[in-house]
């Protein structure tokens, strides 16, 4: 075999491998909506295209480009990652005394297998004397408060969100249901100076890069936020020490990581492989040239 023929065969194998690894959805299912890839266990179309109803995605073709929505929580999908995160457009719902916005002091979250990411998302409050907090089963489990000094807008910009006109807190990990509340702890001069208060979940990386002044968020309807997701009511094959076989939930050439407390799991490709670990043959080897 000539060198040219050998190189052509290697190129063809790499192309085929890349094509297989790029397969993200189930056969016959729509894998993309607008500019967003929709990998399994998420899916568009019939019930066989997604794991269960919580992972169903609808594609709104009336917009340009079309926009995908996570049907179970009615949020626009911005990006899906097979590492267990999904980025969504989350509404800025909590507000008090803000011109042009209805007062809404409480927001419920019942997200099925989705929780706001403890790593990437921050619960943020802006305004004077704002008190933002989480509750679960009538118990406060986290929150933050703001104070104001002199010019609130300048203070917030210069100090970012460290309590002066703007505060942030991490979301408790794995919080599948909770109530977010926005209150006030003062009705004195600071409240008269800046009566508008609002709170929101936000992707911290996006917030730092795109919002030099937190007070501009009050004019936004949505901000990006990151959700964590896992496959619940499922466990890995214990007989293989979490390394799955073809009979377990994950596909071939994958590692299955389980959380026995929540009966949930997440799949990942083994080293040297890439693709979708939730499909039967979704993880393809990437070291064929080295093996030659």
TrEMBL record:
InterPro entries: WAK (IPR013695), WAK_GUB (IPR025287). Its main location: membrane. Residues 1-22 form the signal peptide. Keywords: Disulfide bond, Glycoprotein, Kinase, Serine/threonine-protein kinase, Signal, Transferase. It is a single-pass type I membrane protein. Residues 29-89 form the Wall-associated receptor kinase galacturonan-binding domain. This is Uncharacterized protein. It comes from Vitis rotundifolia. The lineage of its organism: Eukaryota, Viridiplantae, Streptophyta, Embryophyta, Tracheophyta.
